[in-house]
């Protein structure tokens, strides 16, 4: 292909070059995908635009997902880039109702990284895979010049099996659905921030990095087809994930911000730094959209799971303002909860 004189099919705001915000899970990321990658790679499978793509094979349905991890620092309270690489991909598969089976792993290593550091990260990655019940069955290793890799980047691809009768997709939200979150928001992003910036709080903030597929299995066993949408709110936090669902489903979402579960330590950190926990990344939480008659049972199921003890009902899907997320504030007002342009915290996963 001749790229001389090539221009993007639709202007990506006013940025002639890539900026960190293009990888932050906000509007810049969405525009990059919608106007650049999606038209170039257009096909029906890609058009699903979920956490994982559902593929038919031999009468079965498989879920496929790929992800890259560039978190800084490599180790943080509650996890490491190795834990993230496994759990992040496992969770993307689980958000389509799949049982994760196999992963591949690609390592881009910067020249000069201590072998002891790489060894510790690989060991943690293997331990995370064993805990999640998946196998890492293929991989690749590349080394880049010193100063060009920031230690280590990891890419993982995962594949899982979707049982019959499960139809979970971001397009399935419908008016009346109740929105649940499986636990406190913002833990991962604030854990990264506290280490990166050398901040100290009265209580240690730890990442929530964890595999969520057993929680999804429990939900499916409890409410079955009443479970319509799942999403793990990673980059861009819950706000970006909810906006993506609202857009995909062409439905409005109304949140009660007074019901959002946030730990006192994270709330204090967000207040200190001028951030909103709705936009801070999570790595061990999920959003679930459930039919209203099954909402309380779904909430009880989440709370009985070790990772869901702080689960809460935080809103519902409405017919009004399709494609828009609004929140009722603590003082009784209402605000539009839009996607941010970029990311409050770059390089958090």
Q: Features of this protein?
A:
single chain; 349 residues; alpha+beta; seven-stranded mixed beta sheet; five-stranded mixed beta sheet; 8 helices; 14 strands
Helix content percent band: 25-40%
Shape: globular
Identify the strand order in the major beta sheet: 9-11-8-12-10-13-14
Which oligomerization state do the chains in this entry correspond to? single chain
Number of helices: 8
Largest sheet: 7 strands, mixed
Parts with pLDDT < 50 across at least 5 consecutive residues: none
Q: Give the H and E element order.
A: HEEEEHEHEEEHHEHEHEHEEE
Q: Indicate the mean pLDDT.
A: 92
Radius of gyration: 20 Å
Which structural category fits the helices and strands?
Answer: alpha+beta
Assess the beta-strand content as a share of residues.
15-25%
C-alpha termini separation: 33 Å
């Amino acid at each position: 292909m001749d790229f001389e004189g090539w221009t993007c099919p639709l202007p990506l705001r006013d940025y002639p070059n890539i900026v960190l915000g293009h990888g932050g899970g906000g509007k810049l990321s969405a525009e990059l995908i919608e106007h650049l990658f999606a038209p170039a790679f257009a096909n029906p499978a890609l058009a699903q635009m979920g956490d994982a793509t559902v593929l038919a094979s031999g009468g079965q349905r498989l879920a496929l997902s790929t992800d890259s991890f560039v978190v800084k620092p490599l180790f943080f309270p509650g996890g490491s880039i190795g834990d993230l690489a496994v759990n992040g991909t496992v969770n993307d598969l689980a958000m389509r109702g799949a049982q994760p089976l196999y992963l591949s792993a690609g390592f881009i290593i910067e020249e000069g990284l201590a072998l002891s550091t790489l060894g510790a990260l690989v060991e943690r990655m293997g331990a995370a895979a064993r805990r999640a019940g998946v196998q890492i069955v293929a991989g690749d290793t590349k080394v880049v010049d010193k100063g060009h890799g920031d230690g280590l980047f990891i890419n993982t691809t995962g594949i899982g099996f979707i049982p019959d009768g499960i139809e979970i997709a971001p397009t399935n939200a419908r008016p009346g659905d109740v929105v649940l979150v499986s636990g406190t928001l913002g833990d991962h992003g604030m854990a990264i921030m506290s280490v990166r910036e050398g901040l100290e709080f009265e209580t240690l903030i730890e990442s929530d990095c964890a595999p969520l597929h057993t929680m999804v299995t429990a939900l499916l066993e409890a409410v079955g087809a009443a479970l319509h949408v799942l999403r793990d709110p990673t980059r861009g936090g819950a706000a970006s994930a909810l906006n993506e669902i609202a857009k995909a489903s062409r439905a409005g979402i109304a949140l009660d911000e007074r019901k959002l579960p946030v730990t006192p330590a994270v709330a204090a950190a967000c207040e200190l730094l001028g951030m909103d926990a709705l936009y801070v990344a999570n790595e061990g939480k999920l959003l679930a959209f459930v039919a209203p008659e099954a909402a309380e049972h779904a909430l009880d199921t989440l709370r009985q799971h070790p990772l869901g003890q702080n689960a809460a009902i935080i809103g519902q899907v409405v017919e009004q303002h399709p494609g828009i997320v609004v929140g009722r504030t603590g003082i009784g007002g209402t605000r539009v909860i839009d996607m941010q342009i970029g990311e409050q915290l770059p390089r958090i996963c």
